[in-house]
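Ligand: flavin-adenine dinucleotide. Inputs:
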Amino acid sequence: FPACSVQLVESEEIGIVGVGEATFPSIRHFHKLLGIDEAEFLRATNGTYKLGIEFRDWRERGERYFHTFGDIGGLSGPRSLWGQYRRVGDAGLGALDAQCLPSVMAREGRFMSAGSEEERQFNYAYHFDAVLYAAFLRKLAEGRGVRRIEGRIVQAPRRADGGIGNLVLADGRAVEGDLFVDCSGFASLLLGRALEERFVDFGRWLPVDRAWACPSERSGTALMPATRCTALEAGWAWRIPLSNRTGHGHVFASRYIDDDKAREQLLQQLDGAPIAEPRLLRFAAGHRERFWVHNVVALGLSSGFLEPLESTSIFLVQSGLGRLIELLMPGERPPKEAVDAYNTGMRRQFERIRDFIILHYCLTSRSDSQMWRDMASMELPETLAFKLHAWREAGALHQYDEEGFDATSWLAIHAGMGHWPQRADPSLLDLPHEDALRALRFRRDSIAAAVAAMPTHEAYLNSVLAR
Ligand SMILES: Cc1cc2nc3c(=O)[nH]c(=O)nc-3n(C[C@H](O)[C@H](O)[C@H](O)COP(=O)(O)OP(=O)(O)OC[C@H]3O[C@@H](n4cnc5c(N)ncnc54)[C@H](O)[C@@H]3O)c2cc1C
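Predicted complex:
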């Protein structure tokens, strides 16, 4: 929008939340749209590649599975790979993960990104230092004409029509604007505080509400191209490998564990020596009922937050921006239809991701703490209950509109949690047993051979950084 002038009001005194180190593959489309060079971005943010998430101890302690951004073959009918794998039931085949290229790459600590997007059988995202990423984007934005105003907003007086008139800063300056994008983090200064938009609370399904975050030195182990999420007594711990350090955090439910014990449990998870004091963050799961009200659009934490289990927050920021770009017509007052479409789309996206995150918890067999017992018996949102029913009864991976995660992702969690349909699809028998077994062996072996020939994640990353 070359005709628009964009001003950013930001306060060094307040700073940014500064956590949020794991992302979702759509970030690559966002970077492409902005013309960001991958090597430059990785160098600026101590970034690494991410092929998915390894979940440990979620169904039972001692078990692990991988949620990949890759292809795991057909999903229904006689060509359903998971269906044939279960029908063949050959122990010699190994785990279902062995049929998925990026899952094997992650397990073996290997990475490469060759060929075109269309040819590649997997997608990937990044890990990075969130503080450095914010600085990187700021520099990019300023270079393209965004004017940054340092200052603390103390008031946002409303106009007669209910919208925001201007922003009043602590030193008395006033910043005028037509459209205000509220990026004020958990404070939600404009949408939450000034416009008093109601918060829709998801706490009854997603009870985690605090996190200790602490970086550590990198251990001598190989640089995993994946995030690790380990289920603990009253929450879970993240482990995010960056090129210079490892990011750690313990996300927990304060109704099941106190802060000190949660901190202690985090420190037991660290890879190496801590390189900062653990920092406590408080949050609530949910979103503002509407995201765009009058002339205010909230993006990021000011609009809502879902716990970071699937690294969806930065994705939601970028998804919101993408929608806004499509619906804004500079110089025109946005029609009611555009505002409604934005609000409906964002609300649904939050609900779909909420359901996907609950899926990780509700399928647990753990009963070793009150949180896990409550998670296994909670009443589910109707939308999720229907999906579980469709999967159990018919092996169908039902998708609604505005899904953040595709059917392959849903399959990864069902499979990882050992949750399978009650009946096999009879059309699986259209393929002779021997042919199915041969195809599965061939795929597993081809993947193993391809991965063995790949560089390690660290070697590949270093080659990109040297560009
Ligand atoms: C524990 C935790 C883990 C997370 N992990 C992930 C993850 O792995 N992946 C992911 O995608 N996301 C993650 N997130 C979310 C992610 O951190 C945020 O979505 C992302 O950083 C964007 O934050 P934001 O810009 O909305 O808010 P902030 O970073 O808080 O920025 C708010 C801005 O508003 C300014 N501001 C606030 N008040 C005022 C004022 N009065 N005057 C002037 N300026 C003001 C601040 O200075 C700051 O610049 C995590 C969040 C938490 C809490």
